[in-house]
C-alpha cells in the first residue's frame, strides 16, 4: 500500500510540496486548507497533470482534517501573512496559534504521523 502524506496549507509552499511529492510518486497526497475549495482546486489541477507528467498517485483536496486520517507524514506549511503594522513578534504569535490548532487536528486523525 502506498504511503499517505498530508500537506496542511495549500498556498504556494504547500501546493509546491504536494506537486513534488506527486511528481516523484512518493505517496498519495492530501492537501488541507481552511479556505473551502482552495485545496480541492489545487488537487484537481495536480491530478489532471498526472497523465501528462507521468505520475499516478491519489491527490485529494479538502478543508476537513478527517480526510487526512492515517497519514504517514504531515507537512505543515500553513500560516498567516504579515499585515501592515504587524511586528514579526505579532506574526509569530498568530502563526504559533495556527500551528498548535493544526497539530491538535492532525493528532486526532493521524496520531502516528
Walk me through this protein's architecture:
- This protein is α/β, with parallel strands linked by helices.
- 44% of the residues lie in helices and 16% in strands.
- It is built from three helices and four strands.
- The chain has a four-stranded parallel sheet with strand order 3-2-1-4, with helices on both faces.
- Strand 2 (28-32), helix 2 (38-53) and strand 3 form a beta-alpha-beta unit.
- Helix 1 (12-23) runs parallel beside helix 2.
- The protein is globular and about 45 Å long.
- The model has no long low-confidence stretch (mean pLDDT 96).
Map the helices and strands.
Elements: E1 4-8, H1 12-23, E2 28-32, H2 38-53, E3 59-62, E4 73-76, H3 88-109
Parallel strand pairs: 1-2, 1-4, 2-3
Helix pairs in contact: 1-2
Condensed summary:
The chain is α/β, with parallel strands linked by helices and 113 residues long.
Largest sheet: 4 strands, parallel
- Binned, the helix content reads 40-55%
Query: How many helix segments?
Result: 3
Query: Hey, roughly how much beta strand do the residues contain?
Result: 15-25%
Compute the average pLDDT: 96
Going across the biggest sheet, name each strand in turn.
3-2-1-4
List low-pLDDT spans: none
Give the beta-strand count.
Answer: 4
Order of helices and strands: EHEHEEH
